[in-house]
Amino acid sequence: MGAKGNVLRLLIVDDEEAARYGMRRALSTFGYEISEAESAEAARILVEKQQPDLLLLDMNLPGASGLDLLRELQDEKKEAPLVVIITAHGSERMAVEAVKSGAYDYLSKPFEVDDLRLVVNNALETIRLRRENRSLRRRIESEDVKRGALLGVSGAMERVRSMIEKVAETDATVLVRGESGTGKELVAREIHDRSSTRRDGAFVAVNCAALPAELIESELFGHEKGAFTGASARRQGKFEQADGGTLFLDEIGDMSANVQAKLLRALEERRIERLGGTESIPVNVRIVSATHRPLEQEISNGNFRADLFYRLRVVTIEIPPLRERREDIPVLAESFAQLSAEKFSLPVRPIAQTALRTLIDYDWHGNVRELRNAIERAVIFAEGDEIRERDMPEEIKPSQARVQTKQIGEEGEEMLDVPFTASFRDDRKEFERRYIARCLEETGGNVTRAAAILGMHRQSLQHKLRELGLARRYVSLAEKEQE
Questions:
Q1: Which residues face 57 on adjacent strands?
Q2: Which superfamily does 150-320 belong to?
Q3: Distance between CA 315 and CA 169 in Å, rounded?
């Protein structure tokens, strides 16, 4: 649920003030964040506002009963808090019915303080396990994608991974820039998952381009009942849902001017107001935004606020298009082929060398997403021992592909004309070796300059040279540079 950090939220719902006081006193020494409600209606409001982890819910309440409230919470789409039912002596049959309706456990009045503490402790241990499982599940579910979009041997991707690692443990706002399909949301998720203070909170994504202008304000900030036609109940917005976690605003450049102003205010004050409401609600949210638009041009055109732009881009991470890092295509294709085979319970087939050349030559305007889809299709239709060119989508076959060697000239053609062998990994290594060697030839063997061109640290390039068997010639030059 919505507990911040490791603080667990309890809500005691009982119409007897003395009963609430007794339970609060018995549990107050354990560091829980405890709230109270005297009715089902008051409890509904607090559940919506505070998102408690555990309810101690009395069965007999004025108005709606505890059982009615329990069933209402279970019927909601979002994950419900655990509920311990409190019943009067002799009402065990109703307690059993409550457990069948989704209650975690029950206590019969009068009960001993130790019994209360034991039930609460057991419930909260279950909540902790839920959190750990939810966090693990998020990581497992995104791992196959991470093995794609964040993989790569290029200096550009090494730089992206390095920036993620550095910024993750801060609360700085991050702007991720790149073409559609390059993996901007994946970068945002990786930043969230690597944050020790936020990864147990929610990661909430909003596509600003997919929502009509009149709905995005309500989507972000929520609304009160009756705020507009169709607002039949109070609704939390994405800011409140992401409290304690990360809010990812995709295609931020499509946001209307009115919502831009409210977003800037929320970032500066760390508080929001629901649409149609007057209450100022504190929020603890880390903002990561993304765009494929040139926001500087949007500012010049009067479509985007400069002050919001500077507030969002405390750190900027640029993801280059796949056509500008072709050396990453072999490792991406290999990974996607394996993942797709696992997904469809099909044999894991290597990619034939002619097919690999086709992949490298194609421009991939849909970037990593398009490559992944192409490989998935090829895995489904492949026959025999390899994934062949004929298994690829028609649009990327040689008749549609850009012939790379014609654009880079005769010298470049010689450097990148890798003699394909029967080993995919050996061919990939040879491609890297020739690509880096070409860069070094163009810099006259200057490792520092070559590293800058490749987007790598000089020490990382030296390590790569040793790995590729180029160290004898080039590392010695690097050592002379340092002298």
A1: 13, 85
A2: P-loop containing nucleotide triphosphate hydrolases (3.40.50.300)
A3: 13
Structure tokens at 311: 């507030």
In contact, 328 and 319? CB cutoff 8 Å:
no
pTM for the model: 0.59
Taking CA atoms, 354 is separated from 46, 143, 226, 435, in Å, by 62, 29, 63, 19
pLDDT number for residue 418: 45
**Bridge partners of 34?**
10
Instruction: Show the beta-strand stretches assigned E in 213-285.
Output: 246-250, 271-272, 281-282
**321-402, what's its fold?**
Helicase, Ruva Protein; domain 3 (1.10.8)
Q: At what angle do helices 471-482 and 447-454 cross, to 10 degrees?
A: 100
Task: Measure Cα distances from 298 to 209, 313, 387 in Å.
Answer: 15, 15, 44
Q: Would you say the CATH fold of 150-320 matches that of 9-132?
A: yes
Strands 203-207 and 174-177: unpaired
**What is the third-level CATH fold of 412-483?**
Arc Repressor Mutant, subunit A (1.10.10)
pLDDT per position as a tens digit, 99-150? 888 888 888 888 888 889 988 988 888 887 777 666 655 554 555 444 445 7
| Range 9-132 has CATH code 3.40.50.2300 | yes
Angle 66-75/40-50 helices, nearest 10 degrees? 30
